[in-house]
Amino acid sequence: MATRLDQIGLKHHFVVAGDYNLVLLDQLLLNENVKQVYCCNELNCGFAAEGYARAHGAAACVVTYTVGALSAFNALASAYAESLPVILISGSPNTNDLGAYHLLHHTLGTLNFRYQLEMARHITCEAVAVTHPEEAPYLIDKAIRAAFRNRKPVYIEIPCNLSGALCSAPGPRASLLDLPESDPVSLAAAVDAATAVLRKAVRPMLLAGPRLRSYGGVEAFRDLAEAVGCGVAVMPSAKGFFPEEHEQYVGVYLGSVSSPGCSALVESADAVLAAGPIFNDYTTVGWTSQPAVSKTIHVDPDRVHVAGVTYNDVFLNDFLAALAEAAKKNPRNGTTLLEFRRTQLESALPPTADQDAPLTRAEMCRQVQDVIDPNTTLIVETGDSWFNGFNMALPDGARFEIEMQYGHIGWSVPATFGYAVAAPDRRIVLMVGDGSFQLTAQEVCQMVRLKLPVIIFLVNNRGYTIEVEIHDGPYNNIKNWDYAGIMAVFSSSDGDGRGFRATTGKELAAAIQEAVAHETGPTLIECTIDRDDCTKQLMEWGPGLPQLTDELLRVLSCPAPWTVQQIRLDGAAWRPR
Ligand code: DPX
Ligand code: MG
Questions:
Q1: HEC string for 191-205
Q2: Ligand 1, pocket residues at CB < 6 Å
Q3: Which residues contact 521 (CB under 8 A, 6 or more apart)?
Q4: Positive or negative CA dihedral for 203, 220, 382, 504?
Q5: Which ligand minimizes its atom distance to the CA of 412?
Q6: Best of 71, 281, 382, 384 to mutate for ligand 1, by most ligand atoms within 8 A of CB?
Q7: CB-based contact 531:465 (threshold 8 Å)
Q8: What pTM was computed for the model?
Q9: Using CA atoms, how far apart are residues 6 and 103, in angstroms rounded to an integer?
Q10: At 327, is the pLDDT very low, low, confident or very high (cuts 50, 70, 90)?
């Protein structure tokens, strides 16, 4: 296992120790090329690996049986949704325990020791359990190969008593990392069809989707854009996959809450090539906006849909590269760009607020924007931080991370930790809301431990503001914390994390100055803003999402025939129509 993790290029793996994995951890420690990084809990450990995979391409984490692994599963599901190859390794009962009728701690208290493997199958593309030392090299390779091919997580279970057993040495890594090749006939046909559509189009557009990076298409997409010469928009989770300073860049496409001028271009285009998109309820703003299917060349990771025909076994990277070669510049393709430039007002810089007035969201964003340089990775958590992030300008080289498909609040703190471990030379900036932070806050202590100079903007708006906009109630209020004060707790006597609270623009500017200069640990800046001070995109996007409104209750399927009257929880009688 250690040799393979090393050979696939990992420099670290993330760990929470437990008595089902201790011998395995000893074995992994023997390979000094792959360092062990410790986490506070297994959910965070999984998310740290997820964040590491974003920066490094792949990641591994090691946990103990059931009590550990079941927590890590949530993060593994995130890696599935976000298409990241994360390898989850769990210790497991000794191979003789079942036959010996041994009931074991950390389990359900039954003799079923298979449930964890069965559960893992639903959230991985390959789940294996080693049951004999000689099977280990084969099964480990099988899982790792699947993770790289599918860009999805995998699960490997290793019993305690086999963790130190001898097995045959692994050979050279051979084809472990190879991606499958497209079917050449299908690929050529798909490229022909797409070329014909693009050639005919008067107002073509390119749209970058979240799967573009996972499936290795970022460079080919840029080549294609330059070959076609048309406008290029990005979906929110693909922000940063096409340079924002590029002359063809037109902004973030998110239906009615897109960046200025962008949705009109995408929706009026006569051909849209969408590379690795995910159109879900969030990204279509509650199914209100999506480029017309009949006009979309839809490029999935392993197939392409063009003009009503699906070309299977055509891989995204191969397709984009081949199409870039084939596409000729259409002189009219610049039309949309020209229009876009005409519609753009001189983008005025947001005005600087009165520096002694209570801090506002707009002033906070204005100052965060100044921190983002070409070496920055901006990581944004689910919440209004998403929209704050979409609005930030990324200079060339800056990167952007978001977990918009899975949307697990609390993801960002451990994922930022993992990302920072993988990319120690980048400036890592996190924007996270108070509610999200409360889920996984303790992982900040690991940033302190490893002296990672992450800058955390903790947006304290005293609640779940995104939920307030979707559907409000008392459940959206949360207990306030002394967020800035928590840094002293995490630093204790052997760390150097710093915490500041900013209630005005002046305090924020002073805190940012300290944070940028602080190199021996993280800095958390608690930005206190009003509970209702949110982006205007959130105000429009939130109410657009489908929820259980009275109207939806009425369109529920017919009640069962024996139902005469149903009582709603609020006491009002509801009669079937
Ligand atoms: C929830 C969300 O404070 O950000 O900007 O105030 O909204 P904002 P916060 O971090 O609050 C986040 C909160 C409760 N979503 O508004 S987005 C539901 C939810 C989720 N993930 C998990 N549990 C609940 N997305 C794990
Ligand atoms: Mg909040």
A1: HHHHHHHHHHCCCEE
A2: 382-385, 407-409, 433-436, 461, 463-467
A3: 447, 448, 451, 452, 453, 491, 495, 496, 497, 498
A4: negative
A5: 1
A6: 382
A7: yes
A8: 0.94
A9: 36
A10: confident
Per the CB < 8 A criterion, the answer to whether 87 and 141 are in contact is no
Q: H helices within 351-457, ranges in order?
A: 361-371, 384-390, 412-422, 434-440, 444-449
DSSP conformation letters of 88-132: EEEEE--TTTTTTT---TTS-SSS---HHHHHHHTTSSEEEE--S
Q: Ligand 1, closest atom to CA 439?
A: 26
Confidence of residue 552 (pLDDT cuts 50, 70, 90): low
Q: Long-range pairs for 561-569 at CB < 8 Å and ≥24 separation?
A: none
Atom of ligand 1 nearest to the CA of 407: 25
Neighbours of 49 (CB within 10 A): 38
- Give tens-digit pLDDT for 446-487: 999 999 999 999 999 999 998 888 888 999 999 999 999 999
DSSP, res 17: -
The least confident of 48-52, 212-216, 291-295, 339-343 is 339-343
Tokens matching residue 5: 């993790």
**227-273 per-position pLDDT tens digit:** 999 999 999 999 999 999 999 999 999 999 999 999 999 999 999 99
Which-ligand-closest: CA of 407? 1
Copy the structure tokens of residue 575.
């009669």
Gap between the Cα atoms of 444 and 412, Å rounded? 11
**Per-residue pLDDT for 577 more than 50?**
no
Dist. CA 272–CA 262, nearest whole Å: 13
Which pLDDT score is estimated for 333? 65
CA 47 to centroid of ligand 1, rounded, Å: 16
Least confident of 15-24, 165-174, 369-378: 165-174
